Amino acid sequence: MSRFDELEKRAEDIGNRIIQLIKEGKTILVVGHLDADGITSASIIGKVIQRKKGHYIIRIYGEMSQQVLEELKEGEYDFHIFCELGAGLAKEMENALKDKWIILDHHQIPPEETKMKQVFNAWQFGFDGGREISAAGMAYFIAKKIDEENTDLSWLPVVSMVADRQDQGKRRSVFGLNRKILDDSVNAGLVTVVTDLLLYGRETKPVHEALASTTTPFIPGLSGNRDACLATLSSTGIQLKQNGRWRTLADFSDSEKKKVMESVIPYLSQVETASEAVDSLIGEVYTLEKEDEHSSLRDARELGTLLNACGRMKRTGVGVSICLGDRSQALQEGEKVLSEYRRTLNRLIHTLLEDEGRIVEKPGFNMVVGDGIVDEDMLGSLTSILSGVAWFESKVLLARTTTAGHYKLSLRRPPQSDSSINLSLILQELSSLHGGSGGGHEAAAGGKIPTSQLKAFLRALNKRLQKKDEGKG
Ligand code: C5P
């Protein structure tokens, strides 16, 4: 049996369990994490239960903790499906919820959880959950086993794979298990794939706004700066307006797109990895064909950001409604939340980068101090963008902010750094040694450390990351 067959067999077993619960009239609590992958994976499971006329409730949480488990223990739900959160807490779940739970996930898990049947995680089957499959992808495998018709939900994991930055193949393509799902989506006529300039909002925004909104890669002088983008693009002589209406990138001819690219290159030349940054501006575009033209839901990357925005700005209900199919009120709300989210991120990035006191260079890593100004739910998104800023390209980036009794931390590994650094494992180990918790992926991890332990934790982390550096080449 191939490892994928094993994965499918487990998906089938879990699917049968869900069907059984529905037949028995049980109420299932679906708990999702608050980012795009958590929202899409919970929505897939919710939709599947809804289609089989079962009872379910979706709730989205920022993190799983002993306290949340205590609350759920007291609750009235017959079964709990955790989507993209709870890794590392399986023992605690067993204590609180007996056998009434499963976790669908793609984060790296501690060895003791790899054998557990109630954990359905890509790593258990030898698949790299950091790069080739999201939690929504794992949920989709279950959905398809429950009913082949659920193939029409395959656009949801396509959104989460790009939102989770798994587009790390050639030309920003997705690969491995993600590619299998993408193929389903393409075959069902839900998604089309073309290679093009990857400006954010390619069908929805005037090109200078699309350029200003592009933060992967972060373009110094242009990202977040609409006026500079308008000035730069105007100087190319491209016609930016037609009949009084701003044109979008999708309206541009190939030669106009080439001019856009040429105007951006000088800004990227200050970046250490300029050629990679330029390359990453061109790649596979995944268009959701069933969405209206000029809607921000058509481009999978844009929808991923919208869902992340809903999660991070505490409007998770809006994100879930969009995933479940609401295209009226929820869509309008979602677009408002997205603009607010982008404004907030822009403001924070500028505040942090302009205040030298908030940037600390340690031998093993760079640290951005968001204490007092960054909401803990925004920290991860902010860190992902900052990790693309030229200043931070040479070392691991750690961003932190204050929360009640703790520091919240986000770590990102720059693409060109030593790939033997596994931030998830390092954070799992060091956070638990210092009374906190943490985990995630090799290149992106997060966690919490008690306030009193911060200094000791940072010392240990610095030592660990320097050691990795010494081992290089
Ligand atoms: O919070 P942040 O975005 O920095 O987290 C990076 C990754 O680590 C995310 O995928 C998040 O779900 C994961 N994570 C985790 N366990 C934690 C904190 C974060 O698996 N305790």
Tally of strands:
15
Strand content: 15-25%
Tell me, briefly, the overall form: globular
Number of helices: 18
**What value does the average pLDDT take?**
94
What is the architecture of the largest domain at the second tier of CATH? Alpha-Beta Complex
Proportion in helices: 40-55%
The CATH C-level class name of the largest domain: Alpha Beta
Question: Taking Cα atoms only, what radius of gyration do you get, to the nearest Å?
Answer: 22 Å
What is the CATH topology descriptor of the largest domain? inorganic pyrophosphatase (n-terminal core)
Q: Low-confidence runs (pLDDT<50, min 5 residues)?
A: none
Whole-number tally of structural domains: 3
Which ions and ligands are bound to the chains? cytidine-5'-monophosphate
Strand order of the largest sheet: 10-11-12-13-15-14
**N-to-C span:** 38 Å
- Secondary structural class: alpha/beta
Characterize the biggest β-sheet: 6 strands, mixed
